[in-house]
Amino acid sequence: MATGHTDPRRRERILAAALDLIAEEGVAGVSHRKIAARAGVPLGSMTYHFTGIDELLLEAFTGYANHVVAVFERHLAVAATPTEAREAVTDLIHTLSEGPRRDLILVQELYTLAARREPYRALCARWMRRSRALLETHFPPDTARQLDALIEGLTLHRALDDDPPGRSLTREAVGRVTGEG
């Protein structure tokens, strides 16, 4: 494997390893040493690329938030009518709730950090603004805000439910929030 400056993907591997460790052990379980070992990089690479664990975690979570916004974009971009937009939101909720357990854990770890620390709260606020802006391409601002909360709540409930409700209940909830019918 390439070393030093000849390894252009080292920083990305470190960030990916950090997210994997957070998903497995929680934020409290991560350390420079564990992340370096998971990423297959020398421990010194950690301080070369990041000023500290906070910078590393914030950048890793920023990348994760960008990933989720991209999922929103992929679902909502195909909708051309209000009916298609409602169906895209339904699909989005099911995609997120049926996705990897890792994603559910990462979101909850980020929310826990955001509840306690301003930089993570600001990251979540930027993430919410971006997801609402995507929703606002199809719905009025107040409806987009309500839908964003519905997406978060239904995703969490569906992911944690032993017998999650089907698409018809999701579709009905999206319809109620968007004033369908």
TrEMBL record:
It holds the Pfam family TetR_N. The keyword Lyase does not apply. The keyword Transcription applies. InterPro entries: Homeodomain-like_sf, HTH_TetR, Tet_transcr_reg_TetR-rel_C_sf, TetR_C_31. Residues 31-50 bind DNA. Transmembrane segments: none annotated. GO terms for molecular function: DNA binding. Residues 162-174 have a biased composition (Basic and acidic residues). Residues 8-68 form the HTH tetR-type domain. Residues 162-181 are annotated as: Disordered. Keywords: DNA-binding, Transcription, Transcription regulation. This is TetR family transcriptional regulator. It comes from Actinospica acidiphila.
